[in-house]
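User: Hello, can you help with two protein structures?

Assistant: Certainly.
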Amino acid sequence: MFDNLSDKLDKALHVLKGHGQITEVNVAETLKEVRRALVDADVNYKIAKEFTSTVKEKALGQDVLSSLKPGQLMVKLVKDELVKLMGGEVAGINLSGDPSIILMSGLQGSGKTTFSGKLANFLKTKKTKKPLLVACDVYRPAAIDQLHVVGDQIGVEVFSDREEKNPVAISEKALAYAKENGHNVVIIDTAGRLAVDEAMMTEISNIHNAIQPQETLFVVDSMTGQDAVNTAKAFNDVLNFDGVILTKLDGDTRGGAAISIKSVVNKPIKFIGTGEKMEAIDVFYPERMADRILGMGDVVSLVERAQDQYDEEEARKLQKKIAKNQFGFDDFLKQIQQVKKMGNMKDLVGMIPGAGKMMKDIDIDDDAFKHIEAIIHSMTPEERTQPSVINASRKKRIGKGSGTSVTQVNQLLKQFDQMSKMMKMMQGGGGKRMMQMMKGMQ
């Protein structure tokens, strides 16, 4: 996400980050590079030009040139303007109404049906709602099937009527069904087209007028860049939607849509899709996104994801096992599963300040834990609870069974042993001792 833009902005601001003399000339040169980086990322030229003009005006007005750390101040100005450009404040979702009605709109292929499922899952797990998904795409039977598959996956009921060909009638029936069956949120997945056309706009406008939704959301594929912004404008002119959903932000995207869509349609980005899993949905925080674009990481989101997967009861059991020296490979496997639930590995690394830059050329596969899991699954229950029994012949068998080598098995055993010792040290009064050891190593 934003890798190319982050690189180019970093290079553009590099001169000012140094301690050399900063002049009005190199501020102008730097901002010219910033503008070029934004345009390359598919940000509309007019928006990029206005952005750099505002930053320049503020930089010269705030005595950046004579400040002690002009580079840092300049980066802050760029960040503040980026935050403003992307909407400033985080925009919440309107869940008033009984039930709350959310109408999803967008072109075919934008990820609308998948995102309807992600949103339903988010509202079910994070907001303790009882959502109902409604299939209103009467043109593609596959779209109805897809929504049912998604609903089954997340344990959310799907309302569909394959005999009815009028999407307004389907949505009205779905509302009546939701009221009768205690669903407090109704998410209506509408038909998309390959391009904006009059028939599509009339249809979604009719649904909108009939059901009067609390939220009308426009789902857009961020990988389509400037086209996405233009499509959003066409939809907004007809629907006057409440917010934007950006999907496929985990792809090799230039990010221009995320940066410029708010200033074109004057509607906030409410959520972003960051992967294929049903949990890969994030509330859009302009400030956190600006930090990531400028390579500053996003520790808050990383901590939030970790907390989402934190199980207090499991943590207590784990603590007892560590104290009794009973931490085994089954426990290790559980820890791996929790990390995997946090999301795409490359995305997680990008949230650590500086790490994204350091590891940009390293391909972090989502299957990074695959060989570790295979090795553990090839162990007997005894070997998992008492790794000390694993001798040379057992290592050979485990390697063969997991499709790995004895070297990899040895490596895992060594890492596991080191981790167990460290955890044991952290548990006891060894926290201070560990700090002393680390100081001694410096």
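That covers the first. Now for the second protein you mentioned:
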Amino acid sequence: MKNYTFLGRSNGRKFCIEGIDVFSNKWQTLGECDIVLEPETKKPYSFSIYRISTASKTITFAAGKFSDSTWGFYQPPEDEQDT
């Protein structure tokens, strides 16, 4: 399990990572999953890894739904992020 940073949760309407609203952009799956821990309960979840590319920036993140149906977003370790 890698050391992902919890960025937050969303009801699926809007969530920004580095100024990019993820729900307003196409997610490209990287074909990978990783285990993340829900921040309050520490329950493990398997979330997919995605990339969004815009004209000015590319972001990589892990995302998936928690048991309460909210989306959770995580930032991968620095050595795995695009700059």
